[in-house]
Amino acid sequence: MTPPRLPGFDTLSLHAGQRPDPVTGARATPIFQTAAYVFQDTDQAASLFNMERAGHVYSRVSNPTTAVLEERIAALDGGIGALATASGQAALHLAVSTLAGAGSHVLASRSLYGGSHNLLHYTLRRFGLDTSFVDPRDLDAWRAGIRPTTRLLFAETLGNPGLDVLDVPAVAQIAHEAGLPLLVDSTFTTPYLQRPFDFGADLVMHSATKFLGGHGVAIGGLLVDSGAFDWERSGRFPELTEPYVGFHGMDFQEESTVAAFLLRARREGLRDFGACMAPFTAFQLLQGIETLSLRMERHVTNTRAVVGFLASHAAVESVNHPELPSHPDHALARTLLPKGCGAVFTFEIRGGRPAGRKFIESLRLFSHLANVGDAKSLVIHPATTTHFRLDDAALRASGIGPGTVRLSVGLEDHADLIDDLAQALRASQKI
Predict the structure, then answer these.
(1) Whole-model pTM?
(2) Does domain 9-288 have CATH number 3.40.640.10?
(3) pLDDT reported for residue 357
């Protein structure tokens, strides 16, 4: 018998997790802008609190609108469920705090978004959680960096801003040999360009603020679970496999053999840290996801045109993009990212920091701001903005120089983008 064909990506982007509202017939997902939900009776209230039936109690923990978004991203990533959070940073914090605490260790790529580096290197260290950072390309360093106290390996599908392509299958294998999960930040790639679960990752996070939302109007994060990691067999996670006094003695692995992580993250992390997503934010992000594949195709097409222009320009010393043969991860990118390597990349201007400053200030179409993944094209100087807390050594390790410029290529006519870049490059060389 031929197995049933599963819905395609575009169909899931439009329909996963939602049907027309049964009360009103509304086709769009309703915005349930409410803090709490009336119980039918005391028995229903008790059963909801004790997780004996599905339903919503308080929107800090779950909400009908955010639930649609959670189901949709889980379907697109190929996971068994997801949690919506107030931001991408909140998603990372939720993942780490669910699995690790004081005395624990996280092993992370050194090529990370500056905010992620700050959280792991500085903030969580104050609470007794240690993080060490390795070159994401150095598989021996990943192996050597694992300690008895390690609870999580963490990296980005495409490093920010160095565009290191993570060898997800290889790093996942190293993690699993040690009985550890691999968390991957898939913000730059989205499920359209890569589904890390297909290559062995266990957890995926997104800053939904970026490409998923696509219009720079809403802050949000998403945390997705593959459901494939065996927490019991690992033996490293009593948080999930032993009774938890903070929730009626519940053994989360026993309660849900495939979703123990999500269950604890929701019932403890969202409950206690409170970094939940607002219903209206979830609605806005759902609108973005509906056009995700169309936008990502255009992002990739435009980026290829811009990269080609910059790579041949006399004022540009180098362009760092995995689709260029000069990039160290070019071959890996062709295997793991056949649809394209996203729309965020860096290049180095001749003339260093002064030339970079003049270039950015001369742009007319590109917006100078701290974001990526917008429908509009964006530009920033990482060394003085997103990564300014890193010292010179850490900057060099992340592939950032004094003249490094990061572009996020939008959906404009690519000829107009190239014209704007050309005039700004001319201006940069006249200082």
Answers:
(1) 0.95
(2) yes
(3) 87
